[in-house]
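Structure (tokenized):
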């Protein structure tokens, strides 16, 4: 905010005084003056000063004498501008103007930094909804796109006290407003960028789930497919188990880490079973004493269900990473209109080595973002998130050995239907060694 101030100079001293906006400052001597200059040549109430738009209004008060502005006598009112000097007897007032500093211009973060900040904000919010927006820019040249990006960011900054942006691609921006009313802020963007596609949501979900829902809005429904992708022997077995339960009336609980494919398994069962089953959402049933149910959750007691099916995390299903990545990229490239987009060998190697803490949902988000962020028809290392793309050679070698060991063990277990004794005989190693390596790699027998 712009500020006006005075340099007060008397025969004995000098000091600065800031003029408050919105009220009159009375310059004089004694208690009746809001600015006491303390000199006998000045009346008790000599002049009044009030800040206006672009100047300070000076008013000579009743009974005051000897008021000069730039050595010109004044008896009524006058406008003071920066540098003007007012004389009240032997006291001088010099007006100065401090212009308002322009607000710091917000720039988009890298998408990795945006995701880190979003994760921190979700943790701090503790269930409070956040507002997210995604803006897909229309086809523009580089300078026009930059100008439109600036207008969009400035418009949000004008009405939202706190907002931060991330660049998912050169033509795809994401924004977070830590306030449930943020969707009203994003609604204003229709006038600023009428040709852009704007998607918003207000939710308290986990970051990967928030992004998945946001991509689905801004890019359309083509990212989701009806048929699941099943390659790993463990998941093949689990899908067989679900089909065997289609005709029964047993209650089924599916457990596993978020994003691992719990709901995909249940949806497959529903397609096979038709209307014979009922799905209960995780936030509805925290305990299993509810009639009916299929349930997919990671936060529920296991007692009370006839069948419990456990879905392993994606890191325990390495054979599926490539198939899932290529399938997600195929869906994304058809949505974004880049039919020749494909995975480069270096990117595929990095995807295979990543531990995927967010499981299948994280992989899907990575591939959707890569489809928009890639500047070539090939998704290489540079189109992947920084933590994934910056893995060093030592980590790559260690993870490659671990991956090879896991693939070998999974293949042997799949061929023996998870018979540990038969697997040990097939691999030519003691049974206790197979048990130890399964535990070290996090491999568990799928539920029957």
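Design, position by position:
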């Amino acid at each position: 905010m712009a500020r006006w101030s005075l340099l007060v100079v008397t025969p004995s001293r000098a000091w600065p005084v800031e003029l408050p906006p919105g009220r009159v400052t009375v310059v004089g001597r004694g208690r009746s003056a809001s600015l006491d200059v303390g000199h006998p040549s000045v009346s008790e109430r000599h002049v009044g000063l009030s800040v206006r738009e672009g100047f300070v209004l000076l008013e000579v008060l009743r009974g005051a004498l000897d008021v000069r502005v730039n050595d010109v006598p004044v008896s009524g009112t006058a406008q003071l501008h920066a540098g003007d000097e007012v004389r009240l007897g032997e006291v001088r007032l010099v007006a100065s103007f401090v212009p308002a500093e322009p607000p710091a211009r917000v720039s988009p973060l890298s998408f990795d930094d945006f995701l880190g900040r979003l994760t921190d904000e979700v943790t701090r919010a503790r269930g409070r909804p956040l507002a997210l927006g995604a803006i897909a820019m229309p086809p523009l040249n580089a300078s026009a796109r930059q100008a439109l990006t600036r207008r969009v960011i400035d418009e949000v900054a004008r009405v939202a006290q706190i907002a931060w942006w991330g660049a998912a691609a050169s033509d795809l921006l994401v924004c977070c407003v830590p306030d449930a009313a943020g969707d009203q802020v994003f609604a204003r963007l229709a006038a600023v960028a009428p040709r852009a596609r704007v998607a918003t949501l207000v939710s308290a979900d986990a970051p990967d789930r928030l992004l998945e829902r946001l991509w689905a809005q801004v890019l359309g429904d083509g990212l989701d497919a009806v048929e699941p992708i099943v390659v790993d022997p463990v998941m093949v077995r689990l899908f067989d188990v679900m089909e065997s339960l289609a005709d029964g009336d047993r209650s089924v609980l599916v457990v596993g880490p978020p994003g691992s494919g719990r709901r995909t398994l249940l949806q497959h069962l529903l397609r096979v079973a038709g209307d014979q089953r009922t799905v209960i959402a995780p936030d509805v049933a925290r305990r299993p004493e509810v009639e009916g149910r299929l349930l997919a959750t990671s936060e529920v007691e296991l007692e009370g269900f006839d069948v419990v099916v456990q879905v392993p995390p994606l890191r325990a299903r390495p054979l599926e990473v490539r198939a899932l990545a290529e399938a997600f990229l195929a869906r994304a490239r058809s949505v974004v209109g880049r039919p020749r987009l494909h995975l480069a060998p270096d990117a595929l190697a990095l995807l295979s080595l990543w531990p995927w803490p967010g499981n299948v949902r994280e992989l899907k988000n990575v591939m959707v973002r890569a489809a928009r962020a890639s500047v070539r028809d090939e998704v290489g290392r540079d189109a992947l998130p920084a933590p994934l793309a910056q893995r060093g050679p030592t980590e790559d070698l260690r993870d490659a050995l671990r991956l090879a060991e896991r693939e070998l063990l999974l293949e042997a277990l799949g061929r023996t239907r998870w018979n540990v004794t038969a697997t040990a005989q097939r691999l030519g190693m003691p049974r206790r060694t197979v048990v130890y390596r399964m535990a070290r790699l996090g491999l568990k027998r799928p539920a029957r």
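Reviewer-requested clarification: The first strand starts at residue 3 and ends at 9. Residues 393-415 form the longest helix (23 residues).
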